[in-house]
Write a structure and sequence with these properties.
heterotrimer, A mainly alpha, B alpha+beta, C alpha+beta, B: alpha+beta, Alpha-Beta Plaits, Sulfite Reductase Hemoprotein, domain 1, 3 domains, 5-stranded antiparallel beta sheet, 5-stranded mixed beta sheet, 15 strands, globular, C: alpha+beta, 4-stranded mixed beta sheet, 11 helices, 25% helix, 19% strand
């Protein structure tokens, strides 16, 4: 999949779900892209690199979201 | 004069064991005096506030920290754990108090010069409080503010040639035992394999794309000093296939009481004279040893390399020369379904650079399987339980081996595959009916 | 406190960025005698508790003096470690997996001055900075987690109970009188960052109350689907709740009997705190091991269901552990680990000898593995 197409798919899908949640597991993103994990990882890494996505971590688990979204970011005054 | 009264913590200053409270207090004082004229980038009284908030926890019997979702530096999905104090007005110095994980060197060997550089950086941009080391193995920097994270990373990579460790759904910082560097039991170079895989899989270590955490640990022998068998998704344990080497003269010296058994580990009590029959031969789990004409004999084919005899007589018995690793998979702490010990998937594999077989035949196929099939927050061991060891062997293309099980299955419910049964599953009912009435 | 830049430019994070360089390479920090003899070691011996010699095929020797350390350590303390290493060991040192510090020298003459120096160093409060020990058939340092000093879900402190227990076990840190080594570990909640599940003795923090729900703020601070997904036992579901002022808000409900008190929901949602003064305390586990020596590795078993937190010195926890070690020391055979001893005499005898009460909490009732812990034989002891 082309990067631009992947980016569009991800941002549209995440935007749509933003009402209920802002953070997603890697596998959720791979599913949105319809790609195998290794291919998805390359695309997602690039989205992080370009600031389209950012990581969120519980310490033990990692998630992805769009920068500045989500309720906890506000609570932590880090947004 | 201390900023906060700490009557409870003060009671942890007495007694012989090193007091972390005394250490924190000395650190608070050093920062207050600041004889080195450091331009502290986080509050100077951070350690005093840390003592204060800890005292409050001792008073309440409850923690005063909150988790934060901040993960790391730009482009990394691990290496930083976000922490916020839930009493920031009372303890402003620790209002933001994030952890950084710094990838430790193999065998945890250090040179003072380098440790002092780390201290300089951490005094300048953090609390100066560390863990040497965290449970996984990293050097832990305990407590800094958000704006300092990138600065610390920049200085660490540019000046100290040093990277962060893992957290979250990453490959976690691999850890090893002292190994061949200073141990005669080590059957492979734990530090080299640990370093090689750490470097090979930097992307997996920094950019989380796994269902959950993944740990490698490297034990040089079955004594398992880094506990790889209990706490790593892939546990590499050194072993050998040939004979234990025996120095009969040294055996005689043990019997004669000239050398203390177990390297002197039992010196604190009079256990009586060393009795090789009782202490070594009768303790052998496979009963593969005996004395003959004053010489120790081992039926090596029957040995399961438990290390007991070698531990008891390290000067007389030495590991074999045809060495490699046994690989076990799926160990984890109890959450959720119960603790799991590593299960054996590779009885023996050579462990020599560039470790291609380990990478391409074991690690990468396992990751591919787990990344595709693993549910969110499912450890490898849980996937193995859910889909079965047979499935894992299938994925790896390994032949079943009785060494992989404790015992064969207890039930006959074998889900035969169609191709395993002659003629397959498709049968002609009419042909059957010729001989069997309805 | 003026901000001093490292050179990093926040507007261009990728400029001059160095990534993926990993740790420093192990062999940069090998003392010369280690570098020279790596892979060529012949045997080792404990000269006294805490002091080892390793002899290489070349005839070279390396003497190691092992010291206990609180893993929570200040840079001031690390600088003192560096000073000692520079004074005696050409600047080299290492740490062990169990948070001990090891100073290595390459000849016997250098050992005594090093020991003397280490033994003479004390904190202002009176405790040793570098107690020598942690080898052989004794108690080594306790590996542990963060506790109240840094963690958001601990059910107990870590450094405090460790200090209290090690003070009590100090003579066994410095001696070789036990039947085999005893590994003690502490994890401050059931998530077990410090994997304590295979230790001779494990101290485990445990919550006993489900989280409270801060209904008024929950929907403002947390994303409800994430809090629900965080629960490993699916005990959390979405709920509409009416606040005392009549306002209806989105929140969650918790099936309390399903809660295993892990705190994972609190990690995702700060409106679900579970820490509680009376609810939280310590579980004691025993009989685990990781070594394959003689018998296979074993999991630790729960032997005390709950001991309240008793800061600052956790006397009941300390007493239970001390008692177990004394009974083990008196009753076990040479080389027998605590778990091997308990299995030989039988767990019913273990409880009797250690004067521990066996309560219903100690019978496993959690999922499949439980069945395998029940007794399926007539072989037991009265």
């Amino acid at each position: 999949m082309e990067y631009e197409e992947a980016k569009k798919k991800i941002t549209e899908a995440l935007q749509k779900k933003l009402k209920t949640k802002s953070k997603f597991y890697f596998s959720d993103l791979a599913k949105i892209l319809g790609e195998k994990p290794r291919v998805a990882k390359k695309l997602i890494n690039q989205m992080v690199q370009e600031g389209v996505l950012e990581y969120w971590s519980s310490g033990s688990t990692s998630m992805y979201g769009m920068p500045g979204t989500g309720k906890q970011a506000h609570a932590e005054h880090e947004d | 004069m201390a900023k906060h009264e700490t009557p409870m913590l003060d009671q942890l200053e007495s007694g012989p064991w090193p007091s972390f409270v005394s250490d924190l207090k000395q650190q608070a004082e050093v920062r207050a005096k600041n004889e080195a004229n450091i331009e502290f980038q986080i509050p100077r009284d951070v350690v005093e506030d840390l003592l204060g908030v800890l005292e409050l926890s001792y008073d309440h019997g409850r923690t005063h920290w909150k988790h934060g979702g901040i993960v790391g530096v730009f482009g990394y999905g691990g290496g930083v754990i976000g922490r916020y104090c839930d009493q920031p007005e009372q303890f402003p110095g620790v209002a933001h108090f994030h952890t950084m994980r710094v990838n430790q060197p193999g065998g945890k060997f250090y040179k003072a010069e380098y440790l002092k550089q780390l201290c300089d950086l951490w005094d300048f941009r953090g609390s100066g409080i560390t863990n040497m080391h965290g449970s996984t193995g990293d050097i832990i920097f305990l407590g800094t503010t958000t704006p300092q994270l990138e600065e610390i990373f920049y200085e660490m990579t540019h000046k100290l040639n040093q990277d962060l460790g893992g957290s979250g759904s990453n490959l976690r910082t691999p850890a090893d035992c002292v190994g061949q560097a200073r141990c005669e039991f080590a059957c492979y170079d734990t530090q080299d394999l640990c370093y090689d895989l750490t470097m090979e899989y930097q992307d997996e270590l920094h950019r989380p794309a796994f269902p959950y955490k993944f740990k490698f640990k490297f034990d040089g022998c079955p004594n398992c000093c880094v506990a790889s068998i209990a706490r790593s998704d892939l546990s590499f344990i050194g072993t050998w296939r040939d004979d234990i080497k025996i120095d009969q003269e040294a055996v005689a010296a043990y019997i004669g009481g000239e050398i203390p058994p177990n390297a002197g580990a039992h010196s604190g009590r009079d256990w009586g004279p060393f009795d090789i029959q009782k202490e070594v031969i009768d303790n052998c789990p496979t009963e593969c040893m005996w004395m003959e004409d004053g010489k120790l004999k081992i039926d090596n084919k029957e040995c399961n390399r438990c290390m007991h005899c070698i531990n008891v007589m390290p000067r007389a018995l030495h590991i074999g020369d045809d060495r490699g690793v046994t690989i076990l998979a799926g160990a984890k702490a109890p959450i959720l379904d119960g603790a799991q010990m590593g299960s054996l998937i590779v009885p023996f594999m050579k462990a020599e650079p560039p470790y291609t077989e380990i990478k391409e035949k074991v690690i990468e196929p396992i990751w591919d399987w787990w990344m595709e099939e693993g549910k969110n927050r499912e450890r490898l061991g849980e996937l193995m339980k859910r889909q079965g060891l047979q499935k894992m062997l299938d994925v790896l293309g390994f032949e079943a081996d009785p060494r992989m099980v404790q015992e064969p299955r207890h039930n006959p419910y074998i889900f035969w595959k169609e191709e395993e049964v002659p003629g397959g599953f498709k049968r002609d009912i009419n042909e059957f009916r010729k001989y069997h009435q309805r | 406190m003026a901000f001093i830049s490292s050179g990093y430019n926040p507007d261009k994070p990728m400029e001059d960025r160095i990534t993926d360089i990993g740790p420093r390479k192990y062999d940069e920090f090998y003392p010369p005698v280690i570098a020279k003899n790596k892979g060529q070691w012949l045997y080792h011996e404990y000269l006294r508790p805490g002091v080892l010699v390793h002899v290489a095929k070349s005839g070279d020797e390396v003497y190691t003096v092992r010291c206990g350390g609180a893993r929570l350590m200040s840079t001031t303390h690390i600088r003192e470690i560096c000073e000692i290493a520079e004074k005696h060991c050409d600047g080299y040192l290492r740490f062990t997996t169990r948070n001990n510090i090891e100073f290595m020298v390459d000849s016997k003459e250098k050992v005594e001055p090093l020991i003397k120096d280490l033994e003479g160093r004390k904190f202002d409060g009176g405790s040793f900075k570098f107690p020598i020990g942690g080898t052989g058939a004794g108690v080594s340092n306790i590996v542990h987690t963060q506790g109240w000093i840094h963690c958001h879900t601990p059910a107990t402190d870590a450094s405090g109970p460790v200090k209290a227990v090690m003070d009590e076990l100090f003579t066994d840190f410095q001696s070789h009188r036990l039947p085999a080594h005893v590994r003690v570990s502490l994890a401050c909640c059931l998530n077990m960052c410090g994997a304590v599940h295979c230790s001779d003795i494990a101290i485990l923090g445990y919550h006993r109350k489900p989280p409270m729900i801060d209904h008024e703020y929950l929907d403002k601070m947390c994303e409800i689907p994430l809090a629900i997904a965080a629960c490993p036992t699916a005990a959390i579901r979405p709920a509409k709740v009416e606040l005392p002022n009549g306002k209806k808000v989105n929140s969650v409900a918790i099936k309390e009997e399903r809660c295993m008190f892990c705190g994972n929901c609190y990690t995702m949602c700060p409106s679900l705190p579970l820490a509680d003064t009376e609810g939280d305390g310590i579980v004691i586990m025993a009989g685990g091991k990781v070594s394959n020596r003689i018998s296979p590795p074993k999991f630790s078993k729960v032997v005390v269901a709950f001991i309240p937190n008793e800061p600052p010195r956790w006397p009941k926890t300390v007493e239970v552990i001390k008692k177990m070690i004394e009974v083990y020391a008196a009753d076990a055979r040479k080389y027998e680990r605590l778990g091997e001893w308990a299995e030989r005499i039988g767990w019913e005898r273990f409880f009797e000898k250690c004067e521990l009460e066996f309560t219903h909490h100690l019978i496993d009732d959690f999922r499949d593995p439980a069945y395998y812990t029940w007794r399926q034989t007539t072989q037991f002891k009265f």
